[in-house]
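User: Fold this; tokens only.

Assistant: Input:
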Amino acid sequence: MKQVTIENPILNSPYKEPNWHFKFAEEGITNEIIEARRISSYFMPIAKPKKKGKQLSLDTEWTEDRIEENKFINQVRDRVALWRKKDYYGITKTSRFLLDYWNNPEREKKLFFCQIEALETIIYITEVANKHGDSWIENAIRQGNQDANPLLFRSAFKMATGSGKTVVMAMLIAWHALNKFANSQDARFSDTFLLVTPGITIRDRLRVLLPNDPGNYYSQRDVLPPDLLAELNKVKIIITNFHAFKLREKSDAARLTKNILSSQNGAFTETPDEMVRRVCRELGTKKNIIVINDETHHCYRRRAGSEEEKVTGEERKEIEKRDEEARIWISGLEAVKEKIGIKSVYDLSATPFFLRGSGYPEGTLFPWVVSDFSLIDAIESGIVKVPRVPVADDQMTGNYPTYRDLWLRIREDLPKKGRKTDAVSGEPKLPVELQAALHSLYGNYEKSYKLWEKNSNGTPPVFIVVCNNTNVSKLVFDYVSGWEKALPDESTVVVPGQLPIFNNERDGRWNERPNTILIDS
């Protein structure tokens, strides 16, 4: 495949609808610029060969013959764009005020176009579409839900990581709550919210959605003017992670005693109703709430009647773990719906796709996705950092680059568990293939770094290594930046790292300001 180098991929303003994009041709992306917005599409994955020993074809290339259009999303996008041009007809006074406020060209803190478009889309579907001949949109969403999660009504926003999903959540909450305060009888809106995340870290980060939080986004990102922010303090918001939906043990009785005494209905385990009361206690008597799911590729129900995929070892364990997490998440939401009622579920994710093991083809887009602002759209709009991928891989294994499937070559030679289980220490010994790959990547980085150093302009390029567990990350960190060697007299000496620019050692000691840092999440 011909390599294309695009030095500056930014074509559009982040604050306006994109009107330029780079063309995809048969051989992949080109540097030819098309004067139009890129349509929403996805790249079909190539199925793995079923016969053992058959060479796996390149399955990660973005080539024209593998592009499939997301027709439903593009049709919705066209209707919303036409409605935007016609001055947002058919909506409440509150919704109009918010759209005008968010679009105000005099704003100091401007919102990204993709953030406003996400809200425009859901406002159009909720307030306008059914009254103006576009009921097919809601019908399509309901059909997608009927097939995958019939007990819930879900809509999803696909937004690239870094494009501001949390701000969109704040906008959603403001739109719903202020409309409900303006007309408490309007059943389309709610002032009660349950935010569900895949982990504790994300849950804590979403505290900015609490109106009384000192760093709340309604104020920090100017989602609302100060007088309406005070009004928003009346909302009920719970932020939790999906693990809270797991039915808990109700007593500390010994396991054997429980096994002897428990009846078939599980006397020592919470019922779904009891779980909902625990999780949603702060909502009081509120009913028909709004659920906002963060990173919802974790939330699905396995497709009924689907065939079991033939996988073994670690991959099977990973699929079983994901399947159990997805079951807990979706079952929890269904229990909340049954007990107190859910008006709507909004999914926000960069990757709202079914995962392997879901019973759907891996990478299939959730059929209830209503808007899409992809990573390449975000890059072309200058919203996210530009990834630089090294192209110099002259090591070949058969007909393919050595480092293309690096993980498959090295995973058996790396620690299987993190440091909490069995921490490794001493000299960082990496598989030779991993050492070679790091040096190859480093060589490419070094050229960019020296060019930046010469020009002394802007932020330096950053080198990131992502690892599968905390023992592996520590090994790579020590190899790259240096490690402490124990001497016979029980003192230690700092051994320099193998990649000079990233070395944290200086004159036999640790640098006061490290060039490389280790982040475990």
